[in-house]
Amino acid sequence: SWHDGREPLLHGEAVAIGMCVSAEVALLMGLCTQQVVDAHYEYVRATGLPAFVPDSVGVEDVLYKMSFDKHHVKKPTMGLCKDIGYLAKNGDSFAWEVDEETISQALVVNMSRRDAVKSATAAAGSVVAA
Questions:
Q1: Number of C-alpha atoms within 13 angstroms, CB side, residue 70?
Q2: Which residues neighbour 73 within 8 Å (Cβ) at sequence distance 6 or greater?
Q3: What gap in Å lies between CA 107 and CA 58, rounded to an integer?
Q4: Is the distance from CB of 8 to CB of 62 less than 8 angstroms?
């Protein structure tokens, strides 16, 4: 949660966003396809949960908060999807160490999707209003 006046996310909301970002990470690492990533966003949004990092949160904010996570030792460790409902195996484990650059790239992609959805929604609204 945030203690600087930003609207906090509920745990489930943060998990939903994290599922979409981790799918982006899996794609960047070559573990899943674009279709799997798109399905994550579709399913999360269909539940009414947020799929995108909020406007008020930047990449550095997320990386800083992640440094306090119980799964962050030397590098953040994540379970990454290979398909909907299936994790990618890493040797005899499902845990993947992910470098901050890959996480940063995944966050930027997530935020770009967010901005594209907002633009499309605004454009559709202006067409309806006209």
A1: 0
A2: none
A3: 9
A4: no
Phi–psi pair at 4, nearest 5 degrees: -120, 30
| Confidence at residue 16, expressed as pLDDT on a 0 to 100 scale | 97
What pLDDT, in 10s, does the model give residues 79-117?
999 999 999 999 999 999 999 999 999 999 999 999 999
Nearest CA among 14, 34, 13, 45 for reference residue 81: 34
Q: Which two tokens stand for residue 60?
A: 């550095």
pLDDT per position as a tens digit, 30-77: 999 999 999 999 999 999 999 999 999 999 999 988 888 776 667 889
Q: What are phi and psi of 39, to 5 degrees?
A: -65, -40
